[in-house]
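Structure tokens please, single chain.
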Amino acid sequence: MKLETFALERWMTAWETKTPYDIAESGIFPMSVRELLALEPESERAKTLERLLDVRLGYSEARGTEELRSLIASTYRRTGPEDILVTTGAIEANFLLMNALLSPGDHVVAVYPAYQQLYSVPRALGCEVSLWKLPKEKGFRYDLDELRRLVTPRTRLIVLNTPHNPTGSMLSAEDLRGVEALAFSVGARVLSDEAYRWLEMPGGEPLAPPMRDLHGAGISIGTLSKPFGLPGLRIGWIAAEADLVARCWGMRDYVSLSPGKLSDALAVLAVRHRAKIVERTRAIVQKNLETARAWFAEHSDVVSWTPPRGGLLAMLSYTLDIPSRALADRLAERYGVMLAPGSAFDIEHHLRIGIGQEPSIFAEGLRRTAQCLSDLRAEGVKARAGR
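Here you go.
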């Protein structure tokens, strides 16, 4: 397997430890262990802490503990712990599934732009990949008619991501059922990367149900990283039928073997208290949405956006005649601001913005971004012709 360079991850690695104002972050502002522990009833906190301190850091149960798998399974319909495999983040879940389901020469339809793994791994496996594009000219909206044109009798897998990274677009419940029916008609499977599950916009439309809930053969990918603010635990999962989960489990014996034991224990706390974590997430998103809307209105002569319909991400469009990689590097190096270059998603003259950051950092990041754009204009950078 020869994988393409992961453009976004390479760029982010260069800057993420050097920029104090990261407003490209794809997840919600991370929780501390103290905050996670504080979700327990006050009468239980000391006991829970002692139990965590006594965890022996040996190998954990390879599939994830039954307690964690049962808690995750309870968030889906018709799903038991045998239908769950706990993985090292959603990234391992996707990797295992694609290797388990695909063979060289298979036809795959993958949403695009997207987190690069979703189309690069099938390519590396020797698959023919057709890209289901979300064009900026149509507000980055999914078009099911376009999907119907791409799917053929040779299609073996349709790869979705909703809410969508990097545009914040969404499939409705009706749309998702349409995708499922189309896949069923040609004998294909649907892999639904649901990294932004539970991340509805305040006052916005409801999220579609997980793919796993629509059909017994549906495949859902989940994670604690984006909606829970716990990326450091490196906990994700596959929710699928038990025999497919078992195949992926056998494959991960060669990759990561098992989740970290302490991560598993902390994940149990998080999933058990997910309603409180969702409240925290919504409060952060609400504040940052208000800040972003005011900022875009104030600087509408140079920037615009399509606000996310779900999740945490959107694309910021700017009018200046400077490539997105050059602008992103300048923001990071001179202004301490991280906004991901649209070129990493094949969307030039855009930057990916995330609304999950701690609100004061988010606000300062936007202020510095405006200063950068103002400085560029003062230096003579003009607006693009025909924009």
